[in-house]
Design a protein that fits this description.
The chain is mainly alpha-helical and 233 residues long. Helices cover 70% and strands 3% of the residues. Keywords: DNA-binding, Transcription, Transcription regulation.
């Protein structure tokens, strides 16, 4: 019954073509529309809120949710941490998921990245090199590089999925393992990815991405899952 109500509320959102942030019918209206009790409607809405499909603003009403990848990130991060503590190489598996997606995309980008994005990517690698020289962390600049690289594909869902993989990987990495850093190698590899994409050589671009992920994999596998750090939240 509860599951059926959730599906019917989702269908209502789709049928009415409601965008994120749009107001849903009130609780009494939903009770009448769905022929269900107040408790059943509330239970269904709470479940949908947990999935990011609706947003309950107490005292204001219920709205269509952000439809973000947050539940996916939570699920991926939790699954990876739990697997790690069971002795599985779950962090490597998550990394391979990212690698599979990016390797599959990079050849489509070779020679097709807009000039404005190439300028931005150049600036990001320059910033990465400055951060490396100062001994600062490269994570946020690294993230911006990958996001900018694939932006030109004009696929919003793709961007969100890549961000979700990135979020989950870095949250887990922060909680579980201290990865030995080699900032100079990281900078050199990003420069090579950029040069390969700019040159229009799809095979070279794919090789550059594989090298980059191979380097990360080596660092991850060097930190065996025997002694994970205690998660902090």
């Amino acid at each position: 019954m509860a599951r059926d109500l959730q599906e019917r509320i989702k269908k209502l959102i789709i049928d009415r073509r409601l965008p994120s942030g749009a107001s849903l019918p009130t609780e009494p209206e939903l009770m009448e529309l769905l022929g269900a009790s107040r408790n059943s409607v509330r239970e269904a809405l709470k479940a949908l809120q947990a999935m990011g499909i609706v947003e309950i603003r107490h005292g204001f009403g219920t709205y269509v949710g952000p439809m973000s990848m947050a539940p996916m990130i939570e699920g991926l991060a939790f699954r990876t941490v739990a697997g790690h503590y069971r002795g599985e190489d779950s962090l490597v598996q998550l990394l391979e998921l990212r690698e599979a997606v990016e390797t599959g995309l990079i050849s489509r980008l070779a020679g097709r990245v807009p000039e404005a994005d190439l300028v931005e990517l150049d600036a990001l690698v320059d910033r990465m090199e400055s951060e490396a020289a100062e001994g600062a962390g490269l994570a946020e600049t690294d993230r911006a590089f990958h996001a900018t690289l694939y932006r030109g594909l004009g696929n919003l869902l793709l961007g969100e999925v890549l961000e979700a993989f990135w979020d989950a990987f870095h949250r887990v990495r922060t909680d579980l393992v201290e990865l030995p850093q080699d900032p100079k190698v990281t900078c050199r590899q990003h420069r090579e990815i950029l040069d390969a994409v700019r040159s229009g050589d799809a095979l070279r671009a794919e090789e550059a991405i594989r090298d980059h992920f191979g380097h990360i994999r080596t660092r991850v596998t060097a930190t065996a899952p025997n002694e994970p750090r205690r998660p902090h939240h």
